[in-house]
Amino acid sequence: MTAADALPGQPRDAVVSGPATARAVNVLAPNASAMTLDGTNTWLVSEPDSELAVVIDPGPLDEGHLRQVIRTAEETGRRVALTLLTHGHPDHAAGAARFAELTGTKVRALDPALRLGDEGLAAGDVIRVGGLEMIVVPTPGHTADSLCFLLPADRAVLTGDTILGRGTTMVAHPDGRLGDYLDSLRRLRSLTVDDGVDTVLPGHGPVLEDAQGAIEFYLAHRASRLAQVESAVEAGHRTVTDVVAHVYADVDRSLWPAAELSVRAQLNYLGEHGLIS
Ligand SMILES: [Zn+2]
Questions:
Q1: Centre of ligand 1 from the C-alpha of residue 145, in Å
Q2: Which fold has domain 18-210?
Q3: pLDDT(39) > 90
Q4: Which of 34, 66, 77, 124 is the most buried (most CB within 10 A)?
């Protein structure tokens, strides 16, 4: 879900394609839309002196894009050695099987149905490829299978759809759950406070250089939406459609189907916490 506001420290029209940190390069997929912002960010990550690269989220099944990702690696003398997925939504994962075929790599993801090869991913796993180290951080909420990848050497975190480079994300009820999502945001905030992470490399939209500010903004935004939904219900807006029209009046209508899933997640959360009947 995109909101009208830019995130802290972020010009609204900033688009990143190309190198973002010492180790991460974005290859932007050509699938721009209201939901995917400028398109899916496919991240190529490698140690500066290594010939091996890891790809996070090959993106949609778009042959030209998948080949462009491989070319981008080759232009810097690298070969793709592993493919990772932040979650299973098709704009991130639909091209994974074809990409794995083109590169001869395994695909690792939390959801066993998305994996190619025998290795999964679990909390705290350390991915090691050509001297590169990334740590797996489970961040359910947008979806149940959402992961982030911490890149300590660049003080950066790859967030998939858990944090976007512009606007805010959706909680894809019933797979995504609001309570999980809030816990995940707090987990990410602790990375910024305790581990010095300052850069967000999102699944869509521009890189964020104020990770803590962005996460605080997300937490505040979720709290304010939740309060709005609670008030709407108290004011007699009983159907999901009615609550969406009331609470998301400031959001472009093309995003209302996504807003509806987020509203369902919020109603579920309020019900579970005894805040609405
Ligand atoms: Zn997604």
A1: 10
A2: Metallo-beta-lactamase; Chain A (3.60.15)
A3: yes
A4: 66
